[in-house]
Amino acid sequence: MDKLSVMNAFCRIVDRGNFARAAEDLGVSSALLSREVKLLEESLCCVLLTRTTRTMSLTDHGRHYYDQAQAILDAVGQVEDRIRRHSGEVRGNLRINAPNSYGQIVLSPLIPEFLTQHPDLEVTLSLDDRVIDMIEGGFDLSIRIRAELPDSALVARRLSTVRQRLFASPDYLAQAGTPKTPTALRDHATAAYMLADDALHWTLTGRDRTEVITLAPRLRVGSSLVLQDLLIAGFGIGALPDFISDIPEADGRLVRVLPDYELPPRYVFAVTASRLGSDAKVTAFLDQLRATLAP
Fold this sequence. Notes:
The protein is an alpha/beta fold. The protein contains ten helices and 13 strands.
């Protein structure tokens, strides 16, 4: 037994008046309790309980140990009760890490309302397109957009699917022409996202075939928002996730290229460190994010 368990067992023995009743309460054997008390007495170099076949009584040292142990157990219980109560409250500082583009387009618009709903909460939002160590960074929640996540001690929950398609500006297509087949992309200017799983190949899946196109991009960028701006400015053809492309496509600044083809989907994962379940502030944020992502 550890120290707190020994303290609890000793106090239960004293409260119940004998080893047998205490052992029954604790779900252990009387022999185990007797052995633990003996080891405790040896570690303290004094006798805590005087025992005969019929009676048991505390020594002065035993009374002092009982009083102090009971105070410690009460204090630990109060701390645990307080933490359990607070773990169910949306309060404190919620530390979130997310990709730059997703943080700006999806997360930042919902944070003001979220903070209004939870006035005792603070939010720290860190944006980084590279995958970081969330434990080392001290984050409660990491949003990651990947085709899949490697096995780890972290807990990942899939929130939504991200579709990836090819786009260009109307001006670029008017000048360079519109490719009709995946192989025709080789005759066009392309821009690549440096942090893609494979920045030099596009795997395009159509209705009845999949083609892998090798790129020779004139430009590689480490930000999908910069890539969007370059495509709108007429640089060439590039791949964008739907949460970035939806608005410029809807307002006509970008046009789908090869609309019958898509790149492999990626998924939005909410990653937390604990397998015991998220605390209240993480759960509340994910509930609001899911509501935002719902069709």
